[in-house]
């Protein structure tokens, strides 16, 4: 069948590591983490524009998602206008990069998808692969225009300037804002205080969603839980340097198990629907051979079965994440809520 995109081991070059450290004030810690995500975004732009390897776009998108999550979950400790001003701008960037990455995933998985086929042959997917490549070429033109635009360059430049001012203490902000809304604004809040508050908050959001999940829950509830779990994972990653290492690894491991099941559920639903949409596009454009449509239908059915299995696996996996043992591990993991 058509040769898929071959993933490289990793994009060339390393991005300088920015890590929060114990004792940092909350605003400096959040700005430091966001600067690290921005470094990753900018590092991966040339490789994405030149289409050197799909991993450049993947890493760029992950950094954008982490940026959006941290702005949402802890952006209130930054100077007042920043979170409100930049949240929609990074949403635009996320939306810009989504179509091409979705198509990349199909091309990367072509060989695996071909191995799923039972009643069809791998070569039957060749017209589908060519259709995806044509769609990718169109979406990449929009992507490249966006990444070369003044809008994108201004976003990165102004965001870096604002965050650097926070790190350097030049932002003119009130660093004493209490993330829990309970402390005097005269005492600067440390990253330890912020980590304890926001991890607990994110975990409670996961609990609220998880506790209502049953084998019959609608897909929308499961997708909402997936988003909350992803936010918890990102906030755990950001605050890892101030958490107890062993307990942190244990909590992340438990969370990852649930995320894997949620990913299978999401993948099953989205890919099944996408295959139906691709089939209709191909019929409207230049009708493919019947064998291609039958092969795509077989894949769609396989994804639907994957989603069903993931639903069953989820109700079995959730008790370990939402139980008292995990809650106690999170409490043991978190730093003391100290003041600077």
Give an overview in words.
It is a single chain. With 340 residues, the protein is mostly helical. The chain has two domains: 23-168, CHAD domain (Alpha solenoid), CATH 1.40.20.10; 187-340, CHAD domain (Alpha solenoid), CATH 1.40.20. Helix content is 72%, strand content 0%. Helix 9 (245-285) runs antiparallel to helix 10. Residues 2-11 and 173-187 have low confidence and may be disordered. Residues 23-319 form the CHAD domain. Pfam families: CHAD. This is CHAD domain-containing protein.
Structural class: mainly alpha
At CATH level 3, the topology of the largest domain is CHAD domain
* Major sheet attributes: none
Q: Taking all residues together, what is the mean pLDDT?
A: 89
**Oligomeric assembly:** single chain
CATH level 1 name of the largest domain: Mainly Alpha
**Radius of gyration in whole Å, from Cα?**
22 Å
Strand content: under 5%
Percent in helix: over 70%
CATH architecture of the largest domain: Alpha solenoid
| SSE succession | HHHHHHHHHHH
Regions with little confidence, pLDDT below 50 for 5+ residues: 2-11, 173-187
Shape estimate: globular
CATH homologous superfamily (4th level) name of the largest domain: CHAD domain
Q: How many structural domains does the protein architecture include?
A: 2
* C-alpha end-to-end distance: 61 Å
